[in-house]
């Protein structure tokens, strides 16, 4: 674990709640020691907003200001400080998309400037041409090491003891709360990130590392064990607090399943519907989503002209099922086989994959659909045809997770050459980013999307190659 100094103050961190032609709704979270006085009021044109204490966990108070800014207001004041925010969501706008903010091992001990180099570029861009929204597509933290240093979870996720003593289990919960909180506090307060989180309202969906590596694809006895359930429930509590500015009490207002079994969400603002299915809470080795997620997905109705789906694992991918078959035959490849089982393209999820693709085609009847996705620590894109129902997928990953070797990217590119068509008549093609020779780019990266005069384009920001030419999302050819 980290040798770094403990961080006990954080924020404000903005969470996007919605908006229309005349206003934007946000929540600002401030975290401080439980012994500290409440933070100052936030001042907006409509008045003074007092903070609400929504939780006390791991010695920290979580304070939330819920407020609205008028479209021409341009920001908020906290104490003496002015925080500029894009409050007009009606015309030209920019959205940033990031994923995979961390690494499995030793992430807290990395050199901050090196770790956050892409964040620094995003911050520079934001200061020149501000973003209205920050989408975070999964693995906002890598919590894997949180289970270390406690006797019950020391060997997680390989082993979980049976029938642990209730006192030991309570101590594990406290241990995990502290470790998760420490990690979030340090990562979110990083020097170059703090200004971004305070001035760009964000929308997040989690992936496995926000819980632990491979959550949902692990063997059932581990998932269902008391240690496994403690890991999940602490990860969920912390995800709600740090990534959504929420607790269980907010679930019916913020998420599409009022029971909270699936933490997917939908947000609408002028001309845009953004939604993110939760592909982790209900997952097991057989199913990616359960009844709650599917019910919400079936009922989803886009309100905007352009629908953006945030998919924590890529929805459109190459024929990985072939690779999976090879790996199943080789025992030492088991771990990679587990990774592949996390993907929609796995043998075990093929029917569900088709179901999701059909749903996305249903949404496509209302207008263009763009899928943004992370998870693979590479930049790439894909299209699903035919032309009259084209779906674009933009993959950007990771913002701070270092890329795998380029040989891995080349190998994936070979599989991608095979193409795939899980739905008859709807071929999927993996394509090069504008200006790139290979289909997968092994560099750290993030994505920006911009609306100009009603038309959407996207650019990738690659660590070594720089910014790609713009890809037009409205008239992309299959
Ligand atoms: Fe990741």
From TrEMBL:
Residues 116-329 form the PhoD-like phosphatase domain. It comes from the Bacteria. InterPro entries: Metallo-depent_PP-like (IPR029052), PhoD-like_MPP (IPR018946), PhoD-like_sf (IPR038607), PhoD_2-like (IPR043904). Pfam families: PhoD_2. GO terms for cellular component: membrane. This is Alkaline phosphatase family protein. The lineage of its organism: Bacteria, Pseudomonadati, Pseudomonadota, Alphaproteobacteria, Rhodobacterales.
């Amino acid at each position: 674990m980290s040798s770094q100094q403990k961080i006990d103050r954080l924020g404000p961190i903005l969470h996007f709640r919605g908006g229309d032609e005349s206003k934007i709704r946000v929540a600002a979270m401030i975290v401080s020691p439980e012994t500290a006085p409440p933070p100052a009021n936030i001042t907006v044109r409509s008045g003074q907003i007092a903070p609400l204490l929504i939780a006390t966990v791991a010695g920290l108070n979580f304070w939330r200001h819920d407020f609205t800014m008028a479209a021409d207001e341009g920001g908020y004041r906290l104490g003496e400080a002015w925080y500029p925010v894009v409050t007009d969501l009606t015309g030209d706008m920019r959205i940033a998309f990031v994923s995979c903010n961390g690494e499995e091992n030793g992430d807290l001990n990395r050199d901050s400037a090196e770790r956050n180099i892409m964040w620094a570029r995003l911050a520079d861009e934001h200061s020149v041409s501000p973003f209205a929204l920050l989408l975070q597509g999964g693995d906002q933290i890598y919590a894997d090491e949180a289970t270390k240093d406690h006797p019950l979870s020391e060997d997680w996720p390989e082993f979980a003891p049976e029938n642990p003593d209730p006192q030991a289990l309570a101590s594990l919960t406290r241990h995990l709360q502290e470790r998760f909180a420490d990690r979030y506090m340090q990562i979110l307060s990083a020097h170059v990130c703090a200004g971004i989180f305070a001035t760009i309202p964000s929308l997040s969906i989690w992936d496995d590392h926000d819980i632990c590596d491979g959550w949902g694809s692990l063997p059932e006895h581990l998932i269902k064990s008391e240690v496994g359930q403690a890991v999940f429930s602490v990860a969920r509590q912390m995800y709600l607090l740090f990534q959504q500015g929420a607790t269980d009490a907010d679930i019916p207002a913020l998420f599409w399943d009022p029971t909270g079994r699936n933490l997917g969400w939908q947000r609408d603002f002028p001309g845009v519907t953004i939604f993110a299915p939760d592909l982790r809470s209900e997952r097991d080795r057989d199913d990616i989503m359960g009844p709650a997620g599917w019910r919400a997905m079936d009922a989803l109705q886009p309100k905007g002209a352009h629908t953006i789906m945030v998919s924590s694992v890529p929805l459109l991918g190459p024929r990985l099922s072939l690779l999976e078959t090879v790996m199943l035959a080789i025992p030492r490849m088991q771990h990679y086989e587990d990774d592949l089982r996390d993907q929609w393209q796995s043998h075990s999820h093929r029917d569900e994959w088709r179901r999701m693709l059909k749903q996305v085609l249903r949404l496509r009847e209302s207008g263009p659909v763009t899928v943004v996705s992370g998870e693979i620590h590479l930049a790439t894109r894909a299209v699903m045809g035919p032309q009259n129902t084209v779906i674009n997928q933009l993959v950007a990953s990771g913002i701070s997770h270092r890329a795998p070797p380029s040989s891995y990217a080349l190998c994936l590119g070979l599989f991608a050459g095979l193409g795939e068509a899980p739905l008859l008549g709807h071929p999927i093609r993996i394509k090069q980013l504008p200006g790139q020779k290979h289909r997968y780019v092994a560099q750290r990266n993030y994505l920006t999307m911009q609306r100009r005069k009603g038309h959407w384009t996207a650019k990738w920001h690659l660590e070594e190659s720089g910014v790609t030419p713009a890809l037009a999302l409205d008239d992309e050819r299959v």
